[in-house]
Write a structure and sequence with these properties.
Residues 123-245 form the Fe2OG dioxygenase domain. This protein has eight helices and 15 strands. By secondary structure, it is an alpha+beta fold.
Length: 281
């Protein structure tokens, strides 16, 4: 099968490689959605051939996914007994899924053909309007696939990056809806409203049913979000493209070991990048 980006991306609907009014219209829509609630979904970003190729590639390396099972709060921090029992920082939930590390995806494979397509990075940057925008230099994490199956899900959390770029590849048989509370901590931590989301009493939660081939841009550092539990035998595959604020950034050895089950020399040689804000991670 042709793994050129041109056959995998729906360039008729999303001419990301050509300057002009059609690309500008796509940018305008994405920016408006991001401004409104921190989320933009480009429906049908992949062609049917693209969906099939990325699914086949994910399945071919699925056995290399690193599974992790733990309990976490929305901030990925440890319990603090000095806080009240109902503080959101003390609410812990089961987290279980798997990440297929980036070095499983070949340069000439489908996933990297999308990532490396001429104009892809520039288009994402233009949508997000980020001045500081670099590919993550981590060889285990620049582009990965999240794999989840029956009973798995990702509980409520904030991202450690300012934004995430994800591509839906395959859905589970049922479940797996993407739920988020837009901009819930724009400006401050807003613990009271976070607590409402966690206990199911918030009216600020939006639900998205993403379909294979959809590209999602999401400002997850400011919007509390989760993936609802999955049901059925078919695994859910979602690609994650990572961009950061400074060149040369890689993950810390501790975080890399947790997510991917191993580290490389580069994780010990380089310092992980520092965040520009003071929010809890």
């Amino acid at each position: 099968m042709d793994h050129s980006g041109a056959s995998l991306i729906n360039l008729t609907r999303y001419p990301i490689h050509k300057k002009g009014s059609e690309r500008d219209a796509v940018l305008k829509s994405a920016r408006e959605n991001l401004d409104r609630d921190g989320c933009a979904v480009l429906k049908g970003f992949l062609t049917q051939d693209g969906i099939a190729a990325l699914t086949a590639e994910a399945e071919s390396v699925a056995e290399n996914g690193h599974k992790s099972f733990n309990r976490t709060n929305a901030y990925f921090t440890k319990d603090d007994p000095s806080l009240p029992a109902d503080d959101p920082r003390r609410q812990f939930f089961d987290r279980s899924n798997a990440f297929i590390p980036a070095d499983n995806f070949r340069k000439d494979g489908a996933l990297r053909s999308v990532h490396d397509f001429d104009g892809f990075d520039a288009f994402i940057q233009d949508c997000l309007q980020e001045e500081k925008f670099y590919r993550y230099a981590d060889p285990l994490a620049d582009v990965i696939v999240n794999m989840a199956s029956e009973g798995n899900g990702f509980p409520w959390h904030f991202d450690t990056n300012n934004f995430t770029v994800t591509l839906a590849i395959q859905n589970a048989d049922a479940g797996g809806a993407f739920e988020y509370a837009p901009g819930i901590r724009e400006g401050d931590e807003n613990f009271d409203e976070v607590k409402h989301v966690l206990d199911g009493t918030s009216d600020k939660v939006t639900t998205l049913e993403l379909e294979p081939g959809d590209l999602q841009l999401f400002r997850g550092r400011y919007s509390l979000h989760r993936v609802a539990p999955l049901r059925g035998d078919r695994p859910r595959y979602v690609a994650i493209f990572s961009y950061v604020e400074e060149p040369g950034m890689v993950g810390s050895p501790e975080r890399t070991e947790q997510l991917y089950g191993r580290t490389l020399p580069i994780h010990w040689e380089r310092q992980a990048g520092h965040r520009a804000d003071a929010f809890i991670d």
